[in-house]
């Protein structure tokens, strides 16, 4: 996501005004033609910083003295990792609903209307033989919206990334790398997409226990994200012998260009 408005965040409840980029008209020109200048209008979209996550932990003075490692540093590092996971779950569990109508479902494609990206009722069944087709179809859907090729990404669940490693691309010569992805574990770039694996995508379990995921692809023009984190180190607690650390992360996000994002409902 883009973080163009990160510096505008101060506290939970803030509203950030995001200025949209208008579409400039391209016209034919003949020698001697009178040029007509457009009056472009840049509309505003509001993004509310309406989420907040915190961590707070203490280290007893006795444990701190008896430990052979710096507990505060270790736990602070873990707090940072857990914070990223918690924010990922919120964002990835919500933004997929903002994709343009032509970029989702069994009839995706702004021009073709015949690309099946799966639905809640009928998710795409993905295995090692067709997982590359999924990536190609997501790319085609973005192509039909004239989304730039540079900076494209796709987020997939680990189970699907495993299918990619078992696909034909496990041959290093086919993937264009000097070493097979089975050797180095790097998925890299496939069909113009930088691939990311996340266990925090929206997952749905139906009444029969079958699981499906909502995969997301796009560019960072699709979503704006802004956050601010404050951390306090309390060297001396009043109620006990020890020190503490706490952190507050406020954040917000908004789908500002649904055409630049596509989603697929898949099962493995």
Provide structural commentary:
- The protein has about 270 residues and is α+β, with helices and mostly antiparallel strands.
- The chain contains six helices and twelve strands.
- The chain has one domain (about 5-20, about 45-265).
- Strands 4, 5, 6, 7, 8, 9 and 12 form a seven-stranded mixed beta sheet that branches. It has a three-stranded antiparallel beta sheet with strand order 3-11-10.
- The longest helix is centred in the first third of the chain and has 22 residues, at about 70-90.
- It is globular.
- The model has no long low-confidence stretch (mean pLDDT about 85).
* Low-pLDDT ranges: none
Helix/strand order:
EEEHHEHEHHHEEEEEEE
Largest sheet: 7 strands, mixed
Distance between the termini: 27 Å
Molecular shape: globular
Strand content: 25-35%
Helix content: 10-25%
Mean of pLDDT: 86
Number of DSSP helical runs: 6
Rg to the nearest angstrom?
A: 23 Å
Please report the total strand number as a whole number.
12
Which helices and strands occur, and which strands form pairs?
Layout: E1 15-19, E2 44-48, E3 51-60, H1 61-66, H2 71-92, E4 124-125, H3 131-143, E5 153-156, H4 158-166, H5 172-175, H6 181-184, E6 189-190, E7 193-197, E8 203-205, E9 211-218, E10 223-234, E11 242-255, E12 261-267
Parallel strand pairs: 4-12, 5-7
Antiparallel strand pairs: 1-2, 3-11, 5-9, 6-7, 8-9, 9-12, 10-11
């Amino acid at each position: 996501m883009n973080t163009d408005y990160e510096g505008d965040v101060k506290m939970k409840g803030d509203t950030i005004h995001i200025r949209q980029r208008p579409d400039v008209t391209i016209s034919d020109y003949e020698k001697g033609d009178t040029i007509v200048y457009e009056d472009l209008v840049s509309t505003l979209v509001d993004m509310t910083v309406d989420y907040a996550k915190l961590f707070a932990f203490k280290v007893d003075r006795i444990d701190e003295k008896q430990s052979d490692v710096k507990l505060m540093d270790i736990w602070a590092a873990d707090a940072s990792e857990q914070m990223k996971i918690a924010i990922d779950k919120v964002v990835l569990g919500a933004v997929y609903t903002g994709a343009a109508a032509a970029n989702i479902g069994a009839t995706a494609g702004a021009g073709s209307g015949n690309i099946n990206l799966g639905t809640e009722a009928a998710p795409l069944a993905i295995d090692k033989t067709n997982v590359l087709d999924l990536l190609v179809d997501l790319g085609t859907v973005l192509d039909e919206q004239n989304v730039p090729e540079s900076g494209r990404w796709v987020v997939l669940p680990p189970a699907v990334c495993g299918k990619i490693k078992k696909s034909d691309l496990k041959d290093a010569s086919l993937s264009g790398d000097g070493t097979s992805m089975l050797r180095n574990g790097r998925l890299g770039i496939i069909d113009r997409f930088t691939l990311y694996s996340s266990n925090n995508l929206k997952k749905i379990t139906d009444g029969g226990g079958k699981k499906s995921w909502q995969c997301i692809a796009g560019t960072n023009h699709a979503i704006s994200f802004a956050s601010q984190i404050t951390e306090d180190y309390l060297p001396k607690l009043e109620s006990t012998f020890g020190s503490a650390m706490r952190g507050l992360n406020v954040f917000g996000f908004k789908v500002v260009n649904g055409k630049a994002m596509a989603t697929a409902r898949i099962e493995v």
